[in-house]
Amino acid sequence: MSKAKPRYCEICGAPIRGPGHRIRLEGAEVLVCDRCYEKYGRKKSGFSIMPTGREPRRRPVSAPRPKREPKPYRERPLYTEEIVEDFAERVYRAIQRSGKSYEELSHEIGLSVNDLRAIAHGYREPTIKEAKKLERYFKITLIERVEEEFKEKKTIPKDYEPTLGDIANIRIRKRKK
User: Which of 103, 123, 154, 169 is in Cβ range 3.0-4.6 Å of 118 for a Cys bridge?
Assistant: First the structure.
């Protein structure tokens, strides 16, 4: 008589004594020893996608929502705000006209003394936010609007079917020799 081939646990690798146990673990049916059977559960009779003890929730079917019409696209003029080139001269003259010190002005405007001094002497350009504060306080213009030309977007025809080349970015690698 031939001896039976020993079977091993598919989880821990220990030899299985006796018939072993079949359990379902993460969707796979595995043969396990008594110790792993105690850890990972009892034999599962059937396979279900739903967790045990729960029924799928049935939602009442409601009438389909009417599609909203898209809002008409309004073309807005595109513009950018830029600081004028002679901002330093304008700010410096305004400070001289006010007759106040940099410390007093910095508290009233809301900028630091160093920032105010650097802008007035032209060491750095003010940000748009800083320029608006200076404009409001001194009643001078430091920001000018620059209109940009409107570029019409390309429209895709409704009967267009995209190809792989339209969607994918294909890279061709050179082969090593």
Answer: 123
Phi and psi torsions of 106, nearest 5°: -65, -40
Q: Is 103 left (phi over 0), alpha (psi -120 to 50) or beta?
A: alpha
* pTM of the complete model: 0.43
**Token pair of 146, please?**
């620059």
The residue type of 143 is: I
**Which residues are CB-contacts of 77 (< 8 A; sequence separation ≥ 6)?**
147, 150
Residue 130 binned pLDDT confidence (cut-offs 50, 70, 90): very high
Q: Please, are residues 86 and 143 in contact by the beta-carbon 8 Å criterion?
A: no
Query: For 84, which DSSP code?
Result: -
CB 120 within 8 A of CB 109: no
